[in-house]
From TrEMBL:
Membrane spanning stretches: 16-41
Subcellular location, record wording: Cell inner membrane
Record-annotated FMN-binding domain positions: 107-199
Gene Ontology molecular function, alphabetical: electron transfer activity; FMN binding
Name of the protein this chain belongs to: Ion-translocating oxidoreductase complex subunit G
Role description: Part of a membrane-bound complex that couples electron transfer with translocation of ions across the membrane.
GO BP: any one term: electron transport chain
Amino acid sequence: MDNNETAGRSITRNSIILGIFAMVTVGLIAVTQQGTAARIAEEKRRAQMSALTEILPESEHDNDLLEDTLVVDDRKYLNLPTPAVAYRGRQNGDVVAVILPVVAPDGYSGRIDLLVGIYADGTLAGVRTLSHRETPGLGDKIERAKSDWILTFNGKSLTMPEPENWAVRKDGGEFDQFTGATITPRAVVQAVYRALQYFQENRATLLQQTEEPANG
Ligand SMILES: Cc1cc2nc3c(=O)[nH]c(=O)nc-3n(C[C@H](O)[C@H](O)[C@H](O)COP(=O)(O)O)c2cc1C
């Protein structure tokens, strides 16, 4: 066996080993990515579920919220980039509240996803933050787990407070901003107000008694 032949075999063997390594690596990355995507989806689903029951506790409805949904598609008020699911709470068949998907597009770090629950009379049942990229320690006080701030919306409506007070204190309104962070709460206050406007404009569709899906 001459040197050339030995070198050729060695190159072939190394190429095969390299190829196997590449395939194994690609496979591992794919598996990891799939696992991560599944975990994120599961995390989102869990956040959605706990937000729904926090906004409208079991004692306030007798239907399955997940089975009584409608698709809403609105850029003007809800800022939804794509159609999204809203939930209806019922007591004895009557719609008592609607929980709307709402986007605040103008957080400090971009989009903030909210769920806004509104009783049939137009008062707020509750608001929860589903996802955001705001700064830990500054903007993340919009999370229920980090602060009570999001609870200040409970019971408020389009007229309570007056429209000019639907703003953070720094802008002349009645909602607290956070120390060193005005942009995040400002975005959320405005998004919640717009959700109330959407509810008022689409009240009939949102509260209609059929359980057929409908576009809002
Ligand atoms: C690194 C860094 C991260 C910040 N994160 C946030 C944030 O998440 N939310 C927020 O409202 N402001 C954040 N701020 C502060 C804003 O830039 C701004 O100063 C603050 O919101 C006050 O806004 P105002 O001057 O309009 O009242 C951050 C600032 C820095 C330097």
